[in-house]
Design a protein that fits this description.
The chain is an alpha/beta fold and about 325 residues long. It has two domains: about 200 residues, 3-Layer(aba) Sandwich (Rossmann fold), CATH 3.40.50; about 90 residues, Formyl transferase, C-terminal domain (Methionyl-tRNA Fmet Formyltransferase, Chain A, domain 2), CATH 3.10.25. The chain has eight helices and 15 strands. Strands 5-2-1-6-7-8-9 form a seven-stranded mixed beta sheet. Strands 10, 11, 12, 13, 14 and 15 form a six-stranded antiparallel beta sheet that branches. It starts with 6 loop residues before the first strand and ends in an 18-residue tail after the last helix.
Length: about 325
């Protein structure tokens, strides 16, 4: 569609934001500057690692900023010099002050990885899986001073595949977000966007995940544990203990059979997986990881470790 290009400042940090930035670069608009988080130390060597968005900005020679703080008068003045029509935000990692929200002519719009008002917060994709949502998607939102509370501009959704994990779902939602963002900007240029206020009574939170969120409570139904394992794969992972040894579980499958055994009891261990009693139905676990070892299928695990039916998985002594 032929239209007058917007002058856009893009603010984003992780891999999730990359498809949106690349779509903007290939689109009709002018990306005048990119703002991302500072390089962070990672790994055992604590080597500084650049955020993925920085790599994209440098590849295309776009003006790049990595401020430690975004509320300083100096930084606000710098943004004003670009005279942006709109600021696009995708997983930047900080709440924007009013001085930035009010700066562009069309305000700031956000690419959020959930169907708002569900899952407001830092980990919407993971929490959508953990809570068993049938439809998962993305919302393009007009930002305000709240946490993902602004008016909705456009939504798009998909139905997750069976066995979907947050790791497999992230790139799908990121791509969906980039397409929906471009449709939103086209509609905005035509003046054809109607803002829809969120129903705040329907809102749910999606807070940043902690390792302790992964501790499996075997008293819960197999369906809930299945969602937890998939939602926390690949990080921070769902885990349990056996004789004080931590085991991380992957690739679950609900087995609709009842058991009178205590939840957490191992019913069977063979090449197919570990069949475990839960609060309702049973759960088959096909892959696991022990501390200091690589993730492996159960058949490989059983080559070096004997698990006897009747043993009980539980919370262990370490809940961190």
């Amino acid at each position: 569609m032929d239209r007058k290009p917007f002058r856009i400042i893009f603010m984003g940090t992780p891999e999730f934001a990359v498809p949106s930035l690349e779509a903007l670069i290939q689109g009709p608009d002018e990306i005048v500057a990119v703002v991302t988080q500072p390089d962070r130390p990672k790994g055992r060597g604590r080597k500084l690692v650049a955020p993925p968005i920085k790599t994209v900005a440098e590849k295309y020679g776009i003006d790049l900023y990595q401020p430690a703080g975004i509320r300083t008068p100096e930084f606000i003045t710098t943004l004003k010099t670009y005279a942006p029509d709109v600021i696009v935000v995708a997983a930047y990692g900080k709440i924007l002050p009013g001085s930035i929200l009010e700066l562009p002519r069309h305000g700031c719009i956000n690419v959020h990885g959930s169907l708002l008002p569900r899952h407001r917060g830092a980990a919407p994709i993971q929490w959508a899986l953990i809570r068993g949502d049938r439809d998962i998607g993305v919302t393009i939102m007009q930002m305000d001073k709240g946490m993902d509370t602004g008016d909705i501009l456009m939504k798009a959704s998909l139905v997750p595949d069976p066995g979907e994990t947050s790791g497999t779902l992230f790139p799908k939602i990121a791509r969906l977000g980039s397409h929906t963002l471009m449709d939103t900007l086209d509609m905005l240029a035509q003046g054809g966007l109607a803002m829809i206020q969120q129903d705040h009574a329907e809102a749910t939170d999606a807070p940043m995940l902690k390792k302790s969120d992964g501790l499996i409570d075997w008293r819960k139904p197999a369906a809930e544990i299945d969602c937890l394992i998939r939602g926390l794969d690949p990080w921070p992972t769902a885990y349990t203990y056996l004789d004080q040894k931590k085991l991380q579980f992957f690739k679950p499958e609900i087995v609709y059979q009842s058991s009178s055994r205590q939840p957490g009891t191992l019913l069977r261990a063979d090449r197919e997986g570990l069949l475990i009693a839960t609060g309702a139905s049973c759960l088959l676990v096909r892959e696991l990881k022990t501390e200091g070892k690589k993730r492996m299928d159960v058949a490989a695990f059983l080559n070096g470790w004997t698990l006897d039916p009747g043993c009980i998985f539980g919370p262990g002594g370490d809940h961190a």
